[in-house]
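[job 4471] stage=fold_predict status=RUNNING
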Amino acid sequence: MFQFGIDKKTLYIIMAVLVIMSIGRYVNNTNALLSLLLTLPAVLIAITFHEFAHAFAADKLGDDTPRRQGRLTLNPLAHLDVVGSIMLVFAGFGWGKPVEINPRNFNRNVDMSKGEAIVSIAGPVMNFILSILFAILYFTIIKFAPEFAIQQIGMIILALIQTTIIINVGLGVFNLIPLPPLDGSKVLKHFLPYNSREWFDRYSQVFYIVFVILWITGIAGSIISPIINITYQGVIHLVSMLFGI
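[job 4471] inference complete, writing structure tokens
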């Protein structure tokens, strides 16, 4: 997904603050605790497939680095980053263990900039595909197994599916923000003129700092939350129309 250019200790401090601020919601709150439990498998699915998509795209472009490092797998243990996973659970956005690539290994018919953009966009695209697939599963149950849907186990499964849709949409949207170190920055950089790319790279550390400030202050969340909500509602509306619901 991405690598931070700032001290890991800073991230741990930020994570600790957010977790402490959030943990009060789960004390003596059964609904909030259930919501947390439903979020865990959703996070596992979203991050695993996101990082696998990066590795898969790089491998198809000729770079065997992810394959050699054991990242071309759907084993969650190969992709989870402790800090990023906890952030996704408690803050609504996060990351997995970065997939390392070597653009020099890409096929000759793909230039390095284009190859990096394709590998970067693969993760968010995978999340959006998953959100649609889980939405299809959700409405399949609603339409063809309505009696099961109103049973306790059915409601739990539907809640789990709905959470998985939301987490995938959130992860996909978050990573499309065109600021380093997010995937969107590499996609944006590919379409910039050469001089602009150099400027972008030269001040990447500044962008890191801007991103962290936006993150800590909650500005990033206030900006992307409406986008996540609109995207989620769009997926649900689109799939529900397909099922005539």
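[job 4471] summary: The chain is about 70% helix and 0% strand.
[job 4471] exit 0
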